[in-house]
Design a protein that fits this description.
Shape of chain B: globular
Number of domains of chain A: 2
Distance between the termini of chain B: 51 Å
CATH topology of the largest domain in chain A: D-Maltodextrin-Binding Protein, domain 2
CATH architecture of the largest domain in chain A: 3-Layer(aba) Sandwich
Number of helices of chain B: 13
Number of domains of chain B: 2
Largest sheet of chain B: none
Strand content of chain A: 15-25%
Shape of chain A: globular
Oligomer: heterodimer
CATH topology of the largest domain in chain B: MetI-like fold
Radius of gyration of chain B: 27 Å
Strand order of the largest sheet of chain A: 2-1-3-17-6
Order of helices and strands of chain B: HHHHHHHHHHHHH
Strand content of chain B: under 5%
Distance between the termini of chain A: 62 Å
Number of strands of chain A: 19
Structural class of chain A: alpha/beta
Number of helices of chain A: 18
CATH architecture of the largest domain in chain B: Orthogonal Bundle
CATH superfamily of the largest domain in chain B: MetI-like
Structural class of chain B: mainly alpha
């Protein structure tokens, strides 16, 4: 009997050891142990997924690693898809990296949950002066700067110049283009089985929130948990215009409204749609992937009743509050977001850099690229949107706004029902 | 013989001290059993029972995923809130439609396939293996393949439709077709295992009965209706019940196909709970949803099974 009990004990010990070692692996956080000659290793989770941008990020990191023997940075490559879910599990499991790449509107939730370090005192003074107050404001939560803003996206209209010409449309040449002009061109270029406009609005909320600013439609008022929602004519202007173009003018391809931006690009390449609205970063993809002979142009930024305004929702680099090396991480980020480096990243991604010096740099880099002129022009109208300050914005966006906009764009509900869903949904969430 | 011979003297020796011999042996056996069971039980407790219990318990707290969040016991607060949550119940309804129709359609399709595979056709071995292939594919892969098939612009399905003059359909993006389209994928993925179980059942039906019925002049359909189907009845119950549970809890397939869209039309409860837990970071509330789902499924199934058993009993007596 003793022998058997012995076996039991051994088995127990074995299982326990297995279980414990399993747990330990899970909580070995940050991987930033400095046991080898005092060198610190920082984990840097980067989401940049375009090859050119990845190269730019890598060369900047390599340069830093070469100059700083004692603080080494290791890139952990991740993708944009599902980042929110990934980060929330990493943070709760204590395995989040030291440096976190994301975007302002989504990082707010993590800041309010207390996972991000206050970087106010770490940011380089030159850098601080180089970036506008409005953009700093977009990454400030409760008086703490919780991220370095890096690059900004705007929505651009890309057009197939040949199809526009064939339809006898004059290429818009002003500094901006009104929605009326867009509508007319879309109508003129809708012929036979082809549509004037393809717009990937499968996840419509971000686009709606951004372009609505052009009509002074801010959706939210107030900050943090006290924010209140207002869905009026100004807010509904953009959804209504798209709805009318789709169902009254029939100049927007209805299928595209359920797809992602990149799926619609295929139709654009195939000449099935004459124009497509995309994030500015797609300029790089179009330049790389468009079939030979596709004569594409970027049209001037869209102008609503309040101007050519879109939401400034910068990509961000934040530091994990539980990192042992907050200071080192911030130092790296000061280097990483310096004018020259940021310009490289922005140029590779076809995004607008947040700092003035980087913008000047991009202007020289892109001097001979006409698409870039429009990308940079659209950057002039970027303003900090109210939703960045709203703590439960991500929640509202994913569970209320996205299905509601989808239903409206599919002509399943009326304008009034859309407004009610958006407002009542917020009330449900907020209390 | 030899064992009893060797044991006998020992027992004699012990008689004066041992209060009762049977008790000693029973205790020894019990200890032996514990020694053997513990290694198997421990992983179950650590990896299954503890997470399950703590998951259930979380439903009674206000836990969130905040950093160093304070967790307070709030009794039935979450459940009371859940009662009035019309979005959750909407999603619950979609879940019932999804799981019910997938389970039912899978049964019908699998029955047909199993009958086909059970008949004496050529290349029987090959076709049986082919029928199993969807089973070997992970749900995510299935979903990606079907997304391509359903693609409104370049998918083969619309390609075929358009070549015969029917306008293409935006299968996963259109409000009226999204749920049916997803159900078709669910059925396709669920057929193999149901087929295998039904096929095994069919092969246990004795061929004499079929022969006797055939001699009496019963056609193929009557033989199926009066012999195959009744003997498959317990298997059919088990399979549909299991299918219903699995499908109700399935996540990967729909997450990849539609992410609950368009406009929440395919938002089945696991997706809804997932959003609540990881997007809204209210894991207490999300756990309460999980608790409710388990209870609801158990209720529905017990109704179904009790009803079916009663029918079986009635049929026999």
């Amino acid at each position: 009997m003793k022998k058997i009990r012995g076996i039991g004990v051994v088995a127990f010990a074995g299982v326990a050891a297995l279980a414990l070692s399993g747990c330990q692996q899970g909580s070995a956080s940050n991987g930033s142990d400095g046991d080898e000659g005092g060198a610190v290793t920082l984990q840097f989770q980067s989401l940049s997924d375009q090859p050119a941008t990845q190269d730019a990020v890598k060369s900047i990191v390599d340069e830093w690693n070469g100059e700083n023997e004692d603080v080494q940075v290791e890139i952990v490559q991740a993708g944009w898809d599902g980042t929110f879910d990934k980060l929330i599990t990493q943070f709760t499991g204590g395995t989040a990296p030291d440096i976190i790449h994301y975007e302002a509107s989504s990082i707010v939730s993590f800041a309010s949950d207390g996972y991000l370090a206050d970087l106010t005192d770490h940011i380089d003074d030159d850098l601080k002066a180089d970036i506008s107050e409005g953009i700093w404001d977009s990454v400030t939560q409760d008086g703490e700067i919780i991220a370095y803003p890096s690059t900004l996206q705007s929505y651009m209209v890309f057009a197939n110049a040949d199809l526009l010409e064939a339809a006898g449309v004059e290429m818009p040449s002003g500094d901006t283009m009104t929605w009326e002009e867009l509508r007319e061109i879309a109508q003129a270029t809708t012929t036979g089985g082809n549509y004037g406009l393809g717009w990937g609005l499968g996840s419509p909320t971000a686009t709606m929130m951004s372009l609505s600013l052009g009509f002074d439609g801010g959706y939210f008022e107030g900050e943090g948990t006290d924010a209140s929602i207002e869905v009026g004519d100004a807010e509904l202007a953009v959804p209504e215009l798209i709805h009318e173009m789709t169902y009254t003018d029939e100049s927007v391809e209805p299928t595209s409204l359920t797809q992602s931006g990149s799926e619609v690009l295929a139709s654009f390449y195939g000449g099935k749609v004459a124009m497509t609205v995309q994030g500015s970063f797609q300029a790089t993809n179009i330049a790389n992937d468009a079939p030979e002979g596709l004569n594409w142009v970027a049209l001037p930024p869209l102008e609503g009743s309040a101007g050519a305004i879109q939401a400034a929702n910068p990509q961000t680099y934040s530091v994990n509050i539980d990192s042992e090396y907050v200071e080192e991480s911030a130092e790296f980020l000061n280097f990483f977001t310096s004018g020259e480096n940021l310009a490289q990243i922005a140029y590779a991604d076809a995004l607008i850099p947040s700092s003035d010096s980087a913008r000047a740099e991009v202007e020289t880099l892109a001097a001979d690229n006409p698409a870039w002129t429009q990308v940079l022009a659209s950057g002039d109208g970027l303003e900090g949107p109210p939703f960045l300050k709203v703590e439960k914005y991500t929640e509202w966006k994913d569970t209320i706004a996205t299905p509601a906009f989808q239903q409206y764009l599919a002509d399943q509900i009326t304008r009034e029902e859309l407004a009610t869903q958006l407002t009542d949904g917020w009330t449900d969430i907020a209390d | 013989m030899s064992t009893s011979a060797t044991k006998a003297p020992r027992e004699v020796k012990k008689t004066p001290r041992a209060v009762n011999r049977v008790g000693y042996r029973a205790r020894a056996q019990r200890r032996e059993a514990i020694g053997l069971v513990v290694p198997a039980l421990l992983p179950i407790i650590i990896f299954s029972v503890i997470p399950l219990v703590s998951g259930v318990a979380l439903g009674f707290t206000d836990a969130t995923l905040r950093r160093n969040a304070e967790i307070n016991f709030i009794g039935f607060g979450n459940f009371i809130e859940l009662l009035g949550d019309h979005r959750f119940w909407g999603s619950f309804g979609i879940g019932i439609v999804w799981a019910g129709s997938v389970a039912l359609l899978t049964l019908i399709c699998a029955m047909g396939l199993a009958l086909l595979l059970n008949s004496d056709l050529r290349l029987k071995g090959l076709t049986r293996v082919l029928a199993l292939i969807p089973w070997a594919m992970p749900p995510v892969v299935i979903a990606i393949v079907w997304r391509m098939i359903y693609n409104p612009n370049s998918g083969p399905l619309n390609g075929v439709l358009e070549s015969v003059g029917i306008p293409g359909v935006n299968w996963l993006g259109d409000f009226s077709t999204a749920l049916p389209a997803v159900i078709v994928v669910g059925v396709w993925a669920g057929i193999p295992q149901t087929t295998v179980l039904l096929l095994a059942g069919m092969q246990s039906v004795s061929s004499e009965q079929h022969e006797a019925a055939a001699v009496d002049g019963a056609g193929a359909f009557r033989r199926f209706w009066h012999i195959t189907l009744p003997s498959l009845r317990p298997i059919i119950f088990a399979v549909t019940a299991l299918d219903f549970i699995w499908q109700f809890n399935s996540f990967g397939l729909i997450y990849v196909l539609t992410e609950g869209g368009p406009g929440g039309r395919t938002m089945i409860p696991p997706l809804f709970t997932y959003l609540e837990a990881f997007r809204n970071r209210e894991i207490g509330y999300a756990s309460a949803m999980g608790d409710v789902l388990v209870i609801a499924i158990m209720l529905i199934l017990s109704l179904y099974l009790v009803n079916q058993f009663r029918q079986t009993k009635g049929a026999r007596s």
